[in-house]
Design goal:
The protein is α/β, with parallel strands linked by helices. 45% of the residues lie in helices and 12% in strands. It binds adenosine monophosphate (AMP).
Length: 256
């Protein structure tokens, strides 16, 4: 077990980039995919799980946001695939499977990383999952598990529907779970808090239904290939992390 946090330059820069802080090879590098609907706490768990396992947190959303910010500065040229991906993200669309796979292929060095990794945001479709399996098989590697964070839809609607955000500093609150000191006002800068339009209950319901529809073939694929780990995501971040570690331990008791 290790708690260090690798630099991830190879992931963010792609191509021949090396991580400045070269990863230490682990006896059992975990190769995982993290799945879960919006509001299930995927971002929080991705950080915690990867830290706990000493694996790299490879988030496609983080990657694209970082590249979008760099391209705004105009100082770093983006690959053709990354330009297409950033444009799709800015239009609020999903990136096509073909572009997405080119993007990850530009980072194929990460797939062979000797410290392992936790994919977050990829694969998002059945086609992407098949390509990932194919790449790993060609490298003589395999995905250990797809960890699916599961939570009741009503709880998600409450979690996301109660979320309030400061438009200035981006701090997030929850009307009951994590309220600001003064109702409706940011603790940090006194700005009036807002509810993001996609956090309104009707929008949340639509987002969740869309997620279920698109994710179902992916879950079925991992279930049928014996790699799906279902984890109850209703609880504190610490409780959920323990459940994930427990589930992994049952898979490979000697290494967690
Ligand atoms: P996320 O932070 O994972 O929600 O990703 C932010 C945005 O990046 C998404 O809304 C998509 O536009 C794009 N994106 C990230 N990962 C993928 C993927 N695997 N397939 C398609 N689009 C993706």
């Amino acid at each position: 077990m290790t708690s260090s946090n690798p630099g991830r330059e190879a992931w963010f820069e792609g191509g021949d980039a090396h991580c400045e802080n070269p990863p230490r090879a682990l006896e059992h590098p975990w190769r995982l995919v993290l799945l879960g609907p919006p509001g299930a706490g995927k971002g929080t768990q991705a950080e915690r799980i990867s830290k706990k396992l000493g694996a790299c947190h490879l988030s496609t959303g983080d990657l694209m946001r970082a590249c979008a910010a760099k391209s705004k500065d105009g100082c770093v040229p983006l690959s053709g695939a990354m330009q297409e991906a950033v444009a799709a993200m800015r239009r609020g669309e999903l990136v096509s499977d073909e572009t997405m796979c080119r993007l990850v292929a530009e980072r194929s060095r990460c797939l062979a990383c000797s410290r392992g990794y936790l994919f977050d945001g990829f694969p998002r479709t059945y086609a992407q999952a098949l390509i990932l399996d194919e790449w790993l098989t060609r490298m003589g590697l395999q995905l250990d598990a797809a960890v699916n964070l599961e939570i009741d839809q009503r709880l998600l609607i409450d979690r996301l529907g109660g979320r309030r955000v400061c438009p200035k500093c981006k701090a997030t609150y929850h009307v009951t779970g994590n309220p600001p000191k003064v109702e409706g006002i940011c603790d940090h800068d006194g700005e009036a808090l807002i509810q993001r339009p996609d956090d309104r209950p009707e929008a949340v319901k639509t987002r969740l239904e869309e997620y279920d529809r698109s994710c179902e073939p992916l879950l079925r694929h991992y279930e049928e290939t014996g790699r799906l780990l279902r984890v109850d995501a209703d609880g504190t971040p610490e409780e959920v992390l323990l459940r994930v570690v427990d589930a992994l331990q049952q898979r490979a008791p000697q290494v967690v």
